[in-house]
Amino acid sequence: MGTSSRRLVVVGSGIAGLYAALLAADAGTEVVLLTKGALAESNTWYAQGGISAVLDAPAPGDTVAAHIADTLKAGAGHCNEEAVRLLCTEARRDIAGLGRFGVRFDLDDDGGPALGLEAAHSAPRILHAGGDATGAGVADALIRAVLARQANGTIQLFPHAHAAALVQTGGRVTGVTFRHDGGTVTAAGDAVLLATGGAGRLFAQTPNPAVATADGLALGRRAGAAVADLEFFQFHPTCLVHPAAGSGSGAEPEPLLISEAVRGEGATLIDTRGVRFMPGYHPDGELAPRDVVSRSIALHLAKLGDPNGHVYLDARVVEACHGKGYLARRFPTLTVRTREAGIDWTRELVPVAPAAHYWMGGLTTDLHARTTVPGLYAAGEVACTGVHGANRLASNSLLEGLVFGQRAVESFLRGETWVSPDAVPPLASGIPSVDDGEYSLGAWPERQHAPAPGAVGSVHE
């Protein structure tokens, strides 16, 4: 591709931000990549289940049309159908695009992609990596690719950078002001892509990492960007209730999400009486859409007179069906994490309850990831593309980050103009200016150091 002197500032290091930064850099664009914590601190890193996609060689009977239909059904009539069509149609292209950056998915015994089944999908179409460590596998490969491009000077990286405000010139976003190393830095660019993730940490119980605090939505809204569907927040139905939680014995343990793929393999939900209850709420039982399962658990607990209680996930049936050692092979991370919580899930029930997981709403974008403010793109959970409607279909989140991260870069490279002037008045930021150590990235500065590839796996830096 030809060389470009234009610059794209990307905020966020989940799948949308990393993938977009790599695509833009490889197209000859100068890229500044900011992330609030370490590179691996993102919801992407913690994603277990996988990425949904209908490939060139799909599961028997599966089609792109079926993926579209499943997504629309899960969205409860609130999806943007054109956006859903794009998401499902372009999935195979961007799955292939991940391969060029070193992402590898698990294979079945025949050497083809190992496809899993998850709730509300009509066929197995979930790609996974490392069994139940898909997000970490994908993020690790993309992070290594980013670090390689940092080394050759095509991506400038700022970890532990706290974005404070978007810079606007003549009504167009032209950069980001952020806190870094005790000072305030302004990264100038021809456009900004917000890929800052969601807001699970606004809730008391969530498996989201500490960085998920709605920063990107606040940045965009203060700059005048329209928002949509903020009332739709998805609760994942099966988050581990630690035996020690609430005991007052010290720091509360981090919530652990038990992947939907476990139920896809046949695990069931039972109440404290040992009764399997989901078939009484929905014909698809444990594989009903997430909002249905979460709501059913809450209703069932209320009926039992224990609204703040929990139910149990029975994964023993999976081990019994597939043979000893299957859970450890298929879900190695969860096997270790449940054991650390004192539970042998091959023999014991796992206490679970719903927890805040994913925000369907966000900054309103069009099909090219453009917000209503010129120069500002948004992709991933911070955006509201309309593909999820009122309830996200399992494993469509990583896919959305890929597809619309790609579309944002394509739009940027084409130099597309903004055709939707529906911005709302900017809010007063309320952020004090910091004069000490202030400098600008108006010129292409010396690149910053980042963790060595061997240190990328740490998410607690």
Fill in the CATH topology of the largest domain: FAD/NAD(P)-binding domain
Number of DSSP E strands: 20
Strand arrangement within the widest β-sheet reads 6-2-1-10-18
Global Rg: 22 Å
Q: Given this structure, which CATH class of the largest domain is correct? A: Alpha Beta
General form: globular
Whole-number average pLDDT? 88
Count of alpha and pi helical runs: 12
The class by helix and strand makeup works out as alpha/beta
Terminal-residue CA separation = 36 Å
Structure description:
The structure is a single chain. With 461 residues, the protein is of the alpha/beta class. The protein has 2 domains: 7-232 and 360-445, 3-Layer(bba) Sandwich (FAD/NAD(P)-binding domain), CATH 3.50.50.60; 234-355, Alpha-Beta Complex (Flavocytochrome C3, Chain A, domain 1), CATH 3.90.700.10. 28% of the residues lie in helices and 19% in strands. The protein has helices spanning 15-26, 43-46, 64-74, 81-99, 134-151, 215-222, 260-264, 290-303, 316-322, 326-330, 332-340, 397-414; strands at residues 7-11, 30-34, 51-52, 115-116, 126-127, 155-158, 162-169, 172-180, 183-188, 191-194, 227-228, 233-240, 256-257, 268-270, 311-314, 350-359, 362-364, 376-378, 383-384, 439-440. Helix 3 (64-74) packs across helix 4. The longest helix has 19 residues, at 81-99. It is globular. Residues 246-250 and 428-461 have low confidence and may be disordered.
